[in-house]
Write a structure and sequence with these properties.
Length: about 270
C-alpha cells in the first residue's frame, strides 16, 4: 500500500468504528411493558378515587391523554382540554402535585404485586444484549423510581446494575418529544448518537430520539398504532420470540423471525 493510501483507509476505519453499535437504549412505558394501560392509567384512577374525584380515565380517553408526556403534564392537559369547568380550591400546581404523588404510590404498589409483565421478546433480548457484550441504557419520561421499580419487579433486584445509564423524569427540564433525555443519556454514556440504537413505542419518543440523531426502531402497541413513525428505521408489532415471531409493520425488514442482536446490528447499519 502506498503511503497516501493509508490515510483514507485510516479515516474509513475510524468512521466504521464510530458507527459500530455499542449500546441499546430502551424506552420504558409501552416498550418494556404495557405500563400505560395496565399500570399508570390504573394508578391515576386510584389516585382520583383517593382524592374524592369522580374522574375515570378509561382506555380510550387515556389513549387521547397520551398525546402529552409526563403524568403531571397529563393531568394539566386533562383539566385544560377535557374538564375545563372543573373547580378547585387553592393552587392548581399543589393540587396536581398531590394527585401525582398519590398516583406514583399506587403505581409502585402495582409493580410490587407483579401484575405488570414484560412485552414479548424484551427479557430474551436484554439477556442476549448482555451476553454479546453490548451496553444497555434507559431513556424515559417517567420517574427514576418508576423505572427501577419496573426493572426490579420484572428482571430482578440485581438487574439495575445491568444498565449503564438510567435517564428518567425531571432530570431534564423538557420531556419527550424534546431531545433532552436522549442527549443527557448520550452524555452519561460518553457515546455518539451513531454508536447507539433506540427502541421506542410512540411518535413522541421517536421525535425525541431522532432529534438527538439516534437510529431508532419501534415496537408499537394499541395506543401508538396510529402514530407517525416516519423517523424510524423499522416498525414491528413487538420484539418477538422463537415461538411468537414478530411482524414488520413498516420500514426495513430483518432476516430472522424475531429481533436478535444480529438483527439490531443489521438495522443499525442502515440507520
Ligand atoms: C411515558 C410517559 C409517562 C408515563 C407516566 O414515558 O409519558 O408520563 O405515561 O409516568 P416513556 P409519570 O414512554 O418515555 O417511558 O406519571 O411518572 O410521568
Ligand atoms: Mg413509551
Amino acid at each position: 500500500m502506498q503511503k497516501f493510501d493509508i490515510i483514507p483507509a485510516y479515516f474509513y476505519a475510524v468512521k466504521l468504528a464510530m458507527k459500530q453499535l455499542k449500546t441499546v437504549i430502551f424506552d420504558v412505558d409501552g416498550t418494556l411493558a404495557e405500563t400505560e394501560r395496565d399500570g399508570h392509567r390504573i394508578a391515576f384512577n386510584r389516585a382520583f378515587i383517593d382524592a374524592g374525584l369522580d374522574w375515570v380515565w378509561n382506555e380510550n380517553l387515556y389513549g387521547k391523554l397520551l398525546a402529552v408526556t409526563g403524568g403531571k403534564e397529563r393531568i394539566q392537559y386533562y383539566l385544560n382540554d377535557f374538564h375545563s369547568d372543573f373547580e378547585y380550591e387553592g393552587q392548581i400546581n399543589d393540587f396536581i402535585d398531590n394527585l401525582y404523588t398519590a398516583k406514583t404510590k399506587h403505581y409502585a404498589s402495582l409493580l410490587e404485586s407483579h401484575t405488570i409483565r414484560l412485552r414479548p421478546g424484551v427479557f430474551r433480548l436484554i439477556h442476549e444484549i448482555r451476553e454479546r457484550g453490548l451496553g444497555l441504557a434507559i431513556a424515559s419520561t417517567t420517574t427514576p423510581e418508576n423505572v427501577t421499580g419496573l426493572i426490579k419487579s420484572t428482571l430482578g433486584e440485581r438487574a439495575i446494575d445491568w444498565f449503564d445509564c438510567i435517564a428518567a423524569g425531571d432530570i431534564v427540564s423538557a420531556k419527550k418529544p424534546s431531545s433532552d433525555i436522549f442527549d443527557y443519556c448520550l452524555q452519561q454514556l460518553n457515546l455518539t448518537a451513531a454508536e447507539c440504537l433506540v427502541i421506542e413505542d410512540s411518535s413522541n419518543g421517536v421525535i425525541s430520539s431522532r432529534a438527538a440523531n439516534i437510529p431508532t426502531i419501534v415496537t408499537l402497541n394499541n395506543y401508538t398504532q396510529g402514530d407517525d413513525f416516519s423517523g424510524a428505521i423499522s416498525v414491528f408489532n413487538h420484539l418477538g420470540e422463537p415461538e411468537q415471531p414478530c411482524s414488520l409493520i413498516s420500514g426495513r425488514d430483518i432476516s430472522a423471525d424475531f429481533i436478535t442482536v444480529a438483527a439490531l446490528k443489521e438495522l443499525h447499519a442502515h440507520g
